[in-house]
Write a structure and sequence with these properties.
By secondary structure, the protein is of the alpha/beta class. The strands form three sheets. It has a six-stranded mixed β-sheet, sandwiched between helices. Strands 3-2-1-4-5 form a five-stranded mixed β-sheet, with helices on both faces. Strands 12-13-14 form a three-stranded mixed β-sheet. Strand 13, helix 23 and strand 14 form a beta-alpha-beta unit.
Length: 519
C-alpha cells in the first residue's frame, strides 16, 4: 500500500511543502508542491532573532499547510527548520507557537543533518551519482545562510566544509554598501572570493576536480532561467543532458543573468523580487567555484530539502533502496579527521575491531542499535586526535576538536555524545548530575554502556602494539569471557583490563574476564 507523506521545509527565504505518494512498487511520486516567500533569514542574520510579525505570518502559512495535508489525507509528515531558526535566539518560542497554532511539530536540523538529507536526494535522483564521484567531484550546496562544499574522489567522501556565504546572508551583510558603489556585483564577487580561495588552498591542492554537483535553494530558479532563455531568445547552452552544463555553457548563462536586473529576472520567471534578488549571488558562488577549480561540468539535479526528507522517510520505511552508502561517507569523514591530526592508524584499527566485536557479541546485554554502533565506531576513530595538540591533555583536546568539527550526517547531539565518549575514555566517569544539562537520563545510560565497551577495547591495545588478534566473546550463564590470540607478554594489557573491568561491571552487572589463546 502506498503512503501519503508531506515534507515541510521552514527555510530562510521561503516555507515550502511537497506532498508525495510513497510505495515499494512505484517509489516516490510528487503530488503537490506549495511555496510561500517569507524572509525569516533577513531578521535572523541582521538582528539575531525573528520578529513577532514574521512569526505570526509563519504560523498562518503552516496552518494553511495543515489544511492542504488534510485534503490529501496525509498519513505522515516531517517538518524541519534550517539556519534561520537554528541561529535565532527565540527559536524555542517560535517552535512552541507553531505547535500551538498549527499542531505541527517542527524540528531544527543541524547543518550537517540538513546537507546530508540533500545528498540522499541527489544520490537517489542522479542515476550516475556513483559513477560521477569516481572522479574529483564537489557537491556545492548553496543555501540562504551558508554553503556546504563536500569533496568526493574515487567514490569516497574526502572532506566537507561549511562556509557562511549563503545568498541571503551575503545580501543582508552587503546591503548597506549597495548605494556606495556603481557596480554591486563586483562587490559581491570580491566578498565571496576570499573564503573560496582559502577553501581551495586548504582542500583542493591534491584533487583534480572534474565535476560540480549543484544543489540549493535557488537552483530550480536558475534552471527555469536557462529554459526561459532557450525558449524566448533561442539561446543554446553546451551540456551533456538537461540537468547539466559544461563550463562554457554555465559562463554563458551567468553572463546573461548579470545582464539583467532583479525586476527583469522577476518578470521573466514570474517570481517575487526578493527571490530574484538572490539568484545573482547564488550563481556567482558557482561561477567562482568554476574559476577556482578545473571543473568541466556542473550537474543540476534540481532537488530540495523536501526531496531529501521524503527519501529519508522512504528508506526508513524500506520503500526504496539506498543507491549510495552514505554511512561509509560518515566513517570516511571521521577517518580523514583522524589523519589530519596524525592519529595512530594501526592502534585505531585494532581498538575499532575489538570494540565492534564486543558490541556485536553483546547485543542482548546492551540493547543498543546500529546507529549507536556507528557512534561508538566514530568515537574510537577520533579518540586520539587531541594528542596532536598536547600529549598531556589528549582526551580533553579530542573532546574540543570533535565539538568544533562538523561531521556530515551527524546531529549536534550525536557529535556531543561522541565527544563525551572520548573525553571520559580515561579517568573517572561523571555522575549524571554533573552533565545533566547536556543529556537526559536515557542518553546518559547509553553513553555509559558504550563507554564501558570502549574502555575495555582500548585497554587491550594500551601498548599500541596490537598484541591480540582473533578476538572471541563468550557470554553464557552470567559469565563474560573475552579471548584473544597472542604469544606476547600481555602484563600491561591485563593490568589495565582489570581496572576497566570495574566500570564495565558497574554498568552491566557482569565482570568480564580476559583470556589468552596461544595458538
Amino acid at each position: 500500500m502506498p503512503n501519503t507523506f508531506a515534507a515541510i521545509d521552514v527555510g530562510s527565504n521561503e516555507v515550502s511543502m511537497k506532498i508525495f505518494e510513497v510505495s515499494k512498487k512505484y517509489g516516490i511520486k510528487e503530488l503537490d508542491h506549495v511555496r510561500h516567500t517569507i524572509e525569516l533569514g533577513s531578521d535572523t542574520y541582521t538582528n539575531g532573532k525573528i520578529s513577532h510579525a514574521l512569526v505570526n505570518e509563519l504560523c498562518q502559512v503552516l496552518q494553511s499547510f495543515t489544511k492542504k495535508m488534510r485534503e490529501y489525507q496525509v498519513e505522515d509528515y516531517t517538518a524541519c527548520a534550517t539556519s534561520a531558526l537554528r541561529e535565532a535566539v527565540n527559536n524555542l518560542h517560535i517552535i512552541d507557537q507553531i505547535k500551538l497554532t498549527s499542531k505541527l511539530k517542527v524540528s531544527i536540523l543541524s547543518n550537517s543533518e540538513q546537507r546530508f538529507l540533500l545528498y540522499k536526494a541527489v544520490a537517489l535522483k542522479e542515476q550516475r551519482f556513483n559513477q560521477i564521484i569516481e572522479h574529483g567531484t564537489a557537491i556545492v550546496d548553496v543555501g540562504a545562510g551558508s554553503i556546504q562544499i563536500s569533496l568526493f574522489n574515487k567514490g569516497s567522501l574526502i572532506t566537507t566544509q561549511n562556509i557562511k556565504l549563503g545568498s541571503l546572508r551575503i545580501r543582508e551583510i552587503l546591503s548597506t554598501m549597495e548605494n556606495q558603489t556603481t557596480n554591486f556585483n563586483n562587490l559581491l564577487e570580491e566578498y565571496i572570493t576570499n573564503d573560496l580561495q582559502t577553501f581551495k588552498d586548504f582542500f583542493l591542492s591534491d584533487i583534480n576536480l572534474r565535476n560540480i554537483i549543484a544543489v540549493g535553494d535557488n537552483l530550480n530558479d536558475l534552471l527555469r532561467f536557462k529554459k526561459h532563455l532557450e525558449k524566448t531568445e533561442n539561446q543554446k547552452f553546451h551540456s551533456e543532458s538537461k540537468e547539466s552544463l559544461d563550463r562554457s555553457g554555465f559562463y554563458s548563462l551567468y553572463a546573461k543573468l548579470l545582464s539583467k536586473n532583479s525586476s527583469q529576472i522577476s518578470n521573466c520567471l514570474q517570481m517575487s523580487k526578493e527571490q530574484a534578488y538572490l539568484l545573482v549571488p547564488t550563481a556567482m558562488i558557482y561561477y567562482k567555484m568554476f574559476e577556482e577549480t578545473k571543473a568541466t561540468t556542473m550537474w543540476i539535479p534540481g532537488v530540495t530539502l523536501t526531496d531529501g526528507l521524503v527519501v529519508d522517510y522512504a528508506q526508513k520505511k524500506q520503500k526504496v533502496n539506498p543507491t549510495h552508502d552514505f554511512t561509509l561517507d560518515i566513517l570516511n569523514a571521521a577517518r580523514n579527521i583522524a589523519r589530519r591530526y596524525h592519529c595512530n592508524q594501526s592502534h585505531i584499527n585494532n581498538v575499532e575491531y575489538i570494540a565492534l566485536t564486543l558490541f556485536d557479541s553483546l547485543t542482548k546485554l546492551h540493547g543498543l542499535n546500529n546507529r549507536d554502533r556507528l557512534l561508538l565506531q566514530i568515537s574510537v576513530i577520533l579518540h586520539n586526535c587531541g594528542e596532536y595538540i598536547n600529549l598531556n591533555a589528549g582526551a580533553m583536546n579530542s573532546y574540543h576538536i570533535i565539538l568544533s568539527t562538523e561531521i556530515i550526517g551527524l546531529s549536534h547531539t550525536e557529535r556531543e555524545l561522541i565527544a563525551y565518549l572520548v573525553r571520559f575514555n580515561i579517568g573517572s566517569y561523571p555522575k549524571y548530575e554533573d552533565i545533566n544539562n547536556n543529556f537526559d537520563k536515557d542518553t546518559y545510560i547509553k553513553i555509559s554502556k558504550l563507554s564501558a565497551i570502549f574502555r575495555i577495547a582500548n585497554s587491550m591495545d594500551k601498548s599500541h602494539k596490537q598484541k591480540f588478534s582473533n578476538i572471541s566473546v563468550n557470554y553464557r550463564e552470567g559469565q563474560l569471557t573475552i579471548t584473544g590470540t597472542t604469544l606476547e607478554d600481555t602484563t600491561l594489557e591485563r593490568g589495565l583490563f582489570e581496572k576497566k573491568a570495574e566500570f564495565f561491571e558497574e554498568v552491566y552487572g557482569i565482570r568480564p574476564q580476559l583470556k589468552q589463546r596461544r595458538s
